[in-house]
Amino acid sequence: xxxxxxxxxxxxxxxxxxxxxxxxxxxxxxxxxxxxxxxxxxxxxxxxxxxxxxxxxxxxxxxxxxxxxxxxxxxxxxxxxxxxxxxxxxxxxxxxxxxxxxxxxxxxxxxxxxxxxxxxxxxxxxxxxxxxxxxxxxxxxxxxxxxxxxxxxxxxxxxxxxxxxxxx
Length: 168
Prior knowledge:
By secondary structure, the chain is an all-alpha fold. The protein has a domain at 53-143. It is built from 6 helices and no strands. The protein is globular.
């Protein structure tokens, strides 16, 4: 494979993974309250923006977005903490190819979302799914959707026919 294409694919894969790690925390595009300032040394603060949000921060944002009860928060925090550990393990596993890393991270995220939704009311599930859809659309509009940025067109939306193949 051409090194330039490989770099482009890897870059888009890293961008997708970065977005995937931040999805629950980034769902609150409507949230206008400033995030709490990072704590720690200047070095820790400078690295803060490169790290995925902490499980506590994700829970805080989900609580504000979905009006979670105290009981829901107590049940969701261990789920988010487990996901955070899984993501760290996957990210630091040098034996995985970028594609394997992406697949495992995606599977961990989907598992976490299912566990979180199991604790939500129907209204909260609807709000959560709507926020997820808005976030996906925002990423597609920025050219960061699945497969984009690597010279391939985005997949057709569900329920639509795929475009005809190019003439030969």
